């Protein structure tokens, strides 16, 4: 296994691995690499939907999305499909997956099926570094703050989802202890983070904007340009991500599986 770190503060490419054939040693090495690099790119992976789920299961429990229908023959896999006539894409704003759930996923595997001839990159941000990059004046205000995450901004505009999809709310610590690395990380999710406990709306909006600006600064991000067969595995507990929507008139199809996580931990237990 050849791990090549990106030149950014997160991200690495792993060559020499056939994910459909990994054994427990491989899983251990990949998990260690994920803890270190946060986002792992595995080029040229040939996997059926069932094999994608089987790979994900080597890293934790897997279940269907819950609010969006999975593939008919494999409900744990979400097909993220943007067709030439679609204007909006999925995951276009910075977010942490399903932060509005009591236990958001620990991570996700995204496998490229059809990619546009240009555009359609995905970006991830390093939330450990974001926390460290905050000015002291913000840091002292947020260490023990709890954030309110709502699903409305994700599902509000989708008429086809069940009403409960729009009503999910979770309160999580804004500064969390990563359960595996034990490092402090910011846990923020762009538009899904709608407020902070004990803070009025105006102050919360200001703080949210400041956090997002620091957390998504280009110095703290990694950008991947997809090729068919690329599989990216990210740690959802210490990153945010967004899919760029700059390929109007083209098709982009990805398969995603999420791995179950645990409730985010506050830094002082
Ligand atoms: O399609 C992508 O690049 C990312 C989609 C996304 O945001 C997600 O799967 O949560």
Automatic annotation (TrEMBL):
One of its GO terms (cellular component) is cytoplasm. Residues 3-257 form the TauD/TfdA-like domain. Gene3D superfamilies: Clavaminate synthase-like. The keyword Metal-binding applies. GO terms for molecular function: metal ion binding; taurine dioxygenase activity. It comes from the Bacteria. It holds the Pfam family TauD. Keywords: Dioxygenase, Iron, Metal-binding, Oxidoreductase. The keyword Transmembrane does not apply. SUPFAM superfamilies: Clavaminate synthase-like. GO terms for biological process: sulfur compound metabolic process. Belongs to the TfdA dioxygenase family. This is Alpha-ketoglutarate-dependent taurine dioxygenase. The lineage of its organism: Bacteria, Pseudomonadati, Pseudomonadota, Alphaproteobacteria, Hyphomicrobiales.
């Amino acid at each position: 296994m050849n791990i090549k770190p990106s030149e950014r503060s997160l991200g690495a490419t792993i060559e020499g691995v056939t994910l459909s054939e990994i054994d427990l040693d491989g899983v251990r090495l990949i998990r260690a690499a994920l803890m270190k690099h946060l986002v792992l790119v595995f080029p040229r992976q040939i996997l059926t939907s069932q094999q994608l789920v089987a790979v994900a299961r080597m890293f934790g429990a897997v279940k269907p999305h819950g609010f969006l229908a999975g593939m008919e023959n494999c409900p744990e896999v979400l097909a993220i499909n943007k067709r030439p006539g679609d204007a909006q894409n999925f995951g276009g704003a910075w977010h942490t997956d399903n932060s509005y759930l009591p236990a958001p996923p620990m991570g996700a595997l995204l496998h490229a099926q059809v990619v546009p001839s240009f555009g359609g990159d995905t970006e991830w941000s390093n939330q450990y570094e974001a926390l460290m990059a905050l000015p002291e004046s913000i840091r002292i205000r947020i260490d023990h703050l709890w954030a309110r995450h709502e699903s409305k901004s994700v599902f509000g505009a989708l008429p086809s989802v069940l009403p409960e999809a729009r009503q999910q709310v979770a309160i999580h610590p804004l500064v969390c202890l990563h359960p595996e690395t034990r490092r402090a990380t910011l846990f923020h999710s762009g538009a899904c983070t709608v407020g902070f406990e004990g803070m009025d709306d105006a102050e919360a909006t200001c703080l949210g904007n400041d956090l997002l600006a620091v957390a998504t600064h280009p110095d703290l991000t990694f950008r991947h340009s997809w090729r068919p067969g690329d599989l990216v595995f990210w740690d959802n507990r210490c990153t945010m991500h967004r899919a760029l929507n700059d390929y109007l008139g083209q098709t982009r199809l990805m398969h995603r599986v999420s791995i179950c996580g645990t409730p985010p931990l506050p830094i002082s237990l």
